[in-house]
Design a protein that fits this description.
five-stranded antiparallel sheet, two-stranded antiparallel sheet, alpha+beta, single chain
């Protein structure tokens, strides 16, 4: 008879990332945001991701933590547009606490600038992160594939040249594919019918016109228009999906009430 191994008690891992550009992070200060199974805290340009896991090779955990942080930044880029820049991150280090269940964790930050500029959790710069966390907990938990559209939108925002057109088109396709395929393309008719849009509205970022051409610089006006359309595609889908979910829940509640009421349908 074999001897069963005793499972290792979980460890608490805290991964530390640096947000860029740092000048855009001076007022960030929040804690206890949830991204999938991870807790996220931030003070200025230092972002911490907390994960509980069995001790072992830390590399997969680092990749998982970075993926969750990047997902948060993808959705933040959407929520922060157009008044605040999109952010990027680099990994700086990690801490493991052995034999530790999930618990409150204090994330310390010390910098000479604190002597002159204080931190405020209710600063407006934090609002896009709160909105992003709400989307992650609601719409994205129901439709995980929508994450591709947020990722491509953040990539589009980072482009100064004509590649903004390429990524804006990808956002539109990401949303379109959520309505299925037809002839190996997104089902555009189904998407437009659901979102209340037309093919003509998407012309500027459609496959035929949104092409990368490094020899043809893009104007600021064109760039802004493309980003507005790309963001609008996501926004319209989120509103539509929320409406579908609300209608489904209302129907389920009505059915339950009717079934629980004797003598009534």
């Amino acid at each position: 008879m074999g001897v069963q191994g005793v499972p290792s008690p979980p460890s608490l891992f805290v991964f530390r990332f640096r947000l860029l550009p740092s000048h855009a992070c001076s007022n960030l200060n929040f804690h206890n945001l949830v991204v999938q199974d991870a807790g996220v805290v931030c003070t200025r340009d230092v972002l911490g991701v907390r994960i509980n896991a069995v001790p072992g090779d830390v590399r997969p955990l680092l990749l998982a933590a970075k993926a969750r942080a990047a997902l948060l930044l993808d959705v933040h880029a959407y929520c922060a547009y157009p008044s605040r820049p999109q952010l990027d991150l680099v990994s700086e280090g990690w801490l493991e606490v052995r034999d530790a269940a999930d618990k409150e964790t204090v994330f310390g930050y010390s910098d000479p600038s604190l002597e002159s500029i204080g931190l405020a959790s209710d600063h407006a710069d934090n609002a896009p992160f709160f909105e992003a966390a709400k989307l992650l907990g609601c719409t994205l938990s129901r439709v995980p594939d929508l994450a591709h559209a947020f990722g491509d939108f953040r990539a589009a925002r980072s482009q100064a040249g004509s590649y903004v057109a390429f990524f804006a088109n990808r956002v539109l396709e990401d949303v379109g594919y959520l309505f299925g395929r037809r002839d190996n393309h997104p089902d555009w008719d189904k998407m437009n019918a659901a979102l209340g849009t037309t093919t003509a509205e998407w012309t500027r970022i459609s496959k035929g016109t949104a092409r990368h051409n490094p020899l043809a610089p893009i104007s600021d006006v064109n760039r802004a228009a493309m980003l507005e359309l790309a963001r609008g595609a996501i926004e319209k889908y989120v509103a539509w999906e929320d409406g579908q979910t609300f209608a489904s829940l209302t129907k389920a509640a009505t059915t339950y009430i009717a079934s629980a009421t004797p003598g009534r349908l």
